[in-house]
């Protein structure tokens, strides 16, 4: 009995280490009726996706501060330089930095506390395309965020930008919308964040929107990001 009590924790640790060492497979699918230029940082860079096309990205275990998003209205030359109407990342096809608001974001950090993946859809930087971000096998986890509504069609005039819908923080740059400065410990929902939350309850609508917007799955889970589900 004593030996088994020692062996079981060791086995559990080894299992966790094995899971923590597995890369996650992210499948990015464009179901929009138009071309998008998908972006992924810090792994992946970028790729043009015509309607119905798929991009598979192997993301190393332990990757943090990661984002996947769609860019629209792009033009690139043969060297991969150009610009996008929404989601532009410094005028290059192969992104190495985050995109410019407004853009719908799939955010994630892999193999974190208790070997859990943390992931979400964020509208803090606004909205440019509908998106689902769901587990795609590997661990049995099956719950993730969805934001399939065309928010742009209902966007308040003061938030309209580049033909899509920005959020209040990038537009007005005020502490109460960005949860910084004088509002870093006191900010809460605003009329603008409630507009986004009512349409996409799973998604982050302002920076402190954690309780209803952060999802977890065991490390080793694969994921599917779908534009225009």
Automatic annotation (TrEMBL):
Record carries keyword Ribonucleoprotein: no
Residue pairs linked by disulfide bridges in the UniProt entry: 32-228, 74-84, 89-95, 147-200, 155-165, 169-178, 179-187
Keyword Repeat: no
Swiss-Prot/TrEMBL keywords: Antimicrobial, Disulfide bond, Fungicide, Signal
Signal peptide coordinates: 1-23
GO biological process, any: killing of cells of another organism
Gene3D superfamilies: Thaumatin (2.60.110.10)
UniProt-listed InterPro entries: Osmotin/thaumatin-like_sf, Thaumatin, Thaumatin_CS
Pfam families: Thaumatin (PF00314)
PROSITE patterns linked: THAUMATIN_1, THAUMATIN_2
Family recorded in the similarity comment: Belongs to the thaumatin family.
Full protein name: Zeamatin-like protein
Source organism: Eleusine coracana subsp. coracana
Gene: gb21392
């Amino acid at each position: 009995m004593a030996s088994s009590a020692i062996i079981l924790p060791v086995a559990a640790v080894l299992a966790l280490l094995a899971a923590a060492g597995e890369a996650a497979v992210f499948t990015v699918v464009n179901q929009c009726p138009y071309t998008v230029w998908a972006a992924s940082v810090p792994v992946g860079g970028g790729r043009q996706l015509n309607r119905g096309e798929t991009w598979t990205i192997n993301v190393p275990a332990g990757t943090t501060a990661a984002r996947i998003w769609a860019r629209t209205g792009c033009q690139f030359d043969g060297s991969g330089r150009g610009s996008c109407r929404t989601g532009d990342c410094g005028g290059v096809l192969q992104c190495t930095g985050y995109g410019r608001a407004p853009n719908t974001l799939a955010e994630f950090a892999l193999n974190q506390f208790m070997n859990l993946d943390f992931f979400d859809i964020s509208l803090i930087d606004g909205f440019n395309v509908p998106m689902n971000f769901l587990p795609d096998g590997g661990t049995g986890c099956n719950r993730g965020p969805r934001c399939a509504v065309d928010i742009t069609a209902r966007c308040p005039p003061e938030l309209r930008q580049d033909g899509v819908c920005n959020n209040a923080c990038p537009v007005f740059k005020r502490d109460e919308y960005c949860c910084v400065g004088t509002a870093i410990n006191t900010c809460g929902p605003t009329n603008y964040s409630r507009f986004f939350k009512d349409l996409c309850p799973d998604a982050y609508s302002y920076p402190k929107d954690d309780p209803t917007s952060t999802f977890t799955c065991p490390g080793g889970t694969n994921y599917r990001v779908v534009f225009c589900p």
